[in-house]
Amino acid sequence: MKKLITLVLALTLIFTVAGCAAPTTTDPGTSNPGTTDPGTNGGSSESKHKIYLITMDQMDQHWVTVDQGAKKAADELGNVDYQWLAPDVKDDAKQIESINNAIAGGAEAILLAANGPDAVTATLKEAEAEGIKIIYVDSPADFPAVQTLATDNEAAGKTAGEEMISALNDKGITSGKIGIVNVNASTDSTVKREAGFRSAFEGTGFEILETQYADGDAARSKDVAANYITEGVVGIFGGNEGSTVGIGNAIKEAGGDVIGVGFDKSDTIMQLIDEGHLLATMSQNPDVMGYEGMKTAVDVLEGKTIDTDYVDTGVSVLKK
Amino acid sequence: MENQKISKKFLKLFSKRGMGQVITVSVGLVVLIVVFGILNPNFFSNRNISNLLRQIAPIILIGVGQSYVLITGNIDLSIGSVVGMSCMVSATLMSKGMNPWLAVLVSYLAALMVGFLNGKLVSSAKLPAFIATLGTMTIARGIAQIVNNNYNTDSIGPAAEGFRNFFYYGKSFGLYNTIWIAFAIWLIFNFILSRTRTGRHIYAVGSNIHAANLSGVNISSTITKTYLVSAVCSATVGLIITATSGMGTMDAGTSYELYAVASSVIGGVSTLGGQGILLGTIVGASIWGVLQNGLQFAGAPVAIRNIVIGIIVIISVLLDIVVRANKNMAKVKANSKA
Fold first, then answer.
1. Are A222 and A150 in contact, with CB atoms under 8 Å apart?
2. What are the residues whose beta carbons fall under 8 Å from the beta carbon of A198, sequence distance 6 or more?
3. Measured in whole angstroms, how far is the alpha carbon of residue B221 from the centre of its chain?
4. pLDDT reported for residue B185
5. Regarding predicted confidence, which is higher, A29 or A101?
6. A12 contacts in B (CB within 8 Å)?
């Protein structure tokens, strides 16, 4: 009995150690706030700037790509001590914790993708009071920043809607029901995409049904999309990668008459487009957000003037 | 005379362990189906009935796993994470070119390791089930994240079409394979629980663990078996999700342990242990699935859906408590007369 318990505990320990050995870490730095040297602003380029990236979560490949862009710039610049913090799920309170950890960790600049526009503003005030520079990547909050680098999600959503309408009109369809599978009602970027998509349909003969939320989960999104197809929709829109994968799988199964349009680029989505089950996906440029955002952060910390307060990193329409 | 015969049959039926609750919630299920059908006739279309049955199947599976554990008076919070881990392990291996069926085997083995760990932590190390499975929940979710280096996987590819059809998209005898898989697994585990010594031991542990121990039941072995059952059911759901999406997602299965508890409890399984049958779990899972599906056809916002589902969970269990209390009152009266 004792040997068995020892074995079980040893196995648990092994798993834990394996977890600690993960190549990607989101732990805050161990340095204390007192090490921040105000003299580095406009001073020597030999000391490293401590810069954090904080995203909505760490699951979505979109954020991984932002991280890669930021890393690339940090490596090129050479004088950056870079760290990526993120909650394991999209959650305002958890993101606030990450920001607090970055402040406590001695951040000089933070690249932030705000989960919601309002929840983090009080924390950002604290950050600003500490002299920390804020740069938004992907999703801004309602608080002034050095620069925002983002996709104009509303414009991108409208483009998606226009692509769908164009395809439907090509098939001679000028009225019918449209379904929307989105992530949730509080993530600003996906809410804007939906708003843009809906705006494309104003004044047309199409009716948009009640939006369904599936948390960006591909399997749940598939179920929701299948239900829409049973309702007889002629088109379905997906607000992010997982939603779009779900839509594509549902249309694939149903036989492909329904037009599917969505967001984000992934191997699975590109395969569904190549097979003809999805019409198009709006591909953002998250690596550019991370890369240029990092450069802006270093520029501002070294005393340079930042002339552009908004950079539209754009969207590409990917089709067969 | 004839009335007496009929009433005897009913009494016999009701006296079966947990059957009263099953009948109660079955009536509720029928009412729900009728209401949704009236609100939107598309609910009754052939396509939706097929989809609905397939949507319910994974809930039945995790419900069966959770029911086994609950009947011993324990709980399994790692179900959702094991679903996610199985999804990511299988999808990662397939997307890198491994034979799909070999990947399936590896996924089951990984899940069984977690199930075994749960069983030993609870039965041998005497950790409270809530704490032990909370720990393994986090471990399994971590494995789901690490297995593809913190990425969702690429597509599992055309080579996995057979796998996808077997677990999700294919049909046999007019019904989706997912339904047959859930039914087969339910049949096996229902047989074990209701017709074998192992099943009697599971109920005995949940009813009175000390009496069971004194009767010679191997407590450790019995509890471990229930967690292994839970692991097998969770792994199967993970594979179904991989087949559905054609890729692996790190957060697959989130909250599934709660759906499993809801299905079990609605169906009459008691969280105190020793009570409930797997037929009730089917009804509980069906109510859960019908609500998810039907409320979408009713055009209800997700917030309303969550409120309705929560209320119905509470009402289902409340009904059981009320019915049981009445039975006890009847017994007390009968005794006082004697």
1. no
2. A157, A161, A180, A208
3. 21
4. 97
5. A101
6. 117, 135, 139
How far, rounded to the nearest angstrom, does the alpha carbon of residue B39 sit from its chain's CA centroid?
A: 28
Residues of chain A in contact with residue B121, where contact means CB-CB under 8 angstroms, are: 8
Cβ neighbours, 10 Å, residue B154: 21
**How far is B211 from B73, CA to CA, in rounded Å?**
14
Q: What is the mean pLDDT of residues A68-81?
A: 94
How far lies A105's CA from each of A35, A68, A79, A278, B302, in Å?
A: 9, 21, 17, 44, 39
In sequence order, the β-bridge partners of residue A150 are A312
A194: left (phi over 0), alpha (psi -120 to 50) or beta: alpha
A87 min Cα distance to partner chain B (Å):
13
Q: How far is CA B30 from CA B26, B226, B259, B291, in A?
A: 6, 31, 20, 12
N- to C-terminal Cα separation, chain A: 61
Candidates B154, B145, B158, B163; CA nearest to B102 is B163
Q: Is A129 exposed, middle or buried (0-12, 13-18, 19+ CB in 10 A)?
A: exposed
Rounded-to-integer distance, Cα A18 and Cα A174, Å: 56
Q: Check if the beta carbon of residue A252 is closer than 8 Å to that of residue A226.
A: no
Rounded to whole angstroms, the Cα distance separating A182 from A80 reads 37
Nearest to A222 among B42, B135, B245 (CB): B245
What was the pLDDT predicted at B5? Answer: 60
Banded pLDDT at A148 (limits 50, 70, 90): very high
Closest alpha carbon within chain A to B240: A219
- Inter-chain CB proximity B55 and A218 less than 8 Å: no
Cβ burial of A197 (10 Å; 0-12, 13-18, 19+) is buried
Which stretch of DSSP H or E encloses residue A238? strand A235-238
Cβ of residue B150 closer than 8 Å to a chain A Cβ: yes
Instruction: Provide, as residue numbers in chain B, all residues whose Cβ is less than 8 Å from the Cβ of A23.
Output: 149-150
Q: Are A227 and B296 an interchain contact pair (Cβ–Cβ within 8 Å)?
A: yes
Predicted pLDDT at B246:
92
**Cα–Cα dist A55/A150, whole Å:** 13
B278-297 and B177-195 helices, crossing angle to 10°: 150
The β-bridge partners of A80 are: A49
Contact assessment for residue B83 and residue B203, using Cβ atoms and an 8 Å cutoff: no
Q: Do A268 and B241 touch (CB under 8 A)?
A: no
The per-residue pLDDT for range A256-286, each reduced to its tens digit, is 789 999 999 889 999 999 999 999 999 988 9
CB contact under 8 A, B150 and A209: no
Return per-residue pLDDT of chain B as tens, 338 residues.
556 665 555 555 554 567 878 888 899 999 999 999 999 999 998 889 999 999 999 999 999 999 999 999 999 999 999 999 999 999 999 999 999 999 999 999 999 999 999 999 999 999 999 999 999 999 999 999 999 987 888 889 888 999 999 999 999 999 999 999 999 999 999 999 999 999 999 999 998 999 999 999 999 999 999 999 999 999 999 999 999 999 998 889 988 999 999 999 888 888 888 888 999 999 999 999 999 899 888 888 877 888 888 888 888 778 767 766 776 777 777 776 65
Query: Which among A154, A220, A213, A210 is positioned nearest to A184, based on CA atoms?
Result: A213
Confidence of residue A13 (pLDDT cuts 50, 70, 90): low
Strands A147-150 and A280-283 turn out to be unpaired
Residues of A in contact with B151 (CB under 8 A): 61, 64
Residue A32, amino acid: N
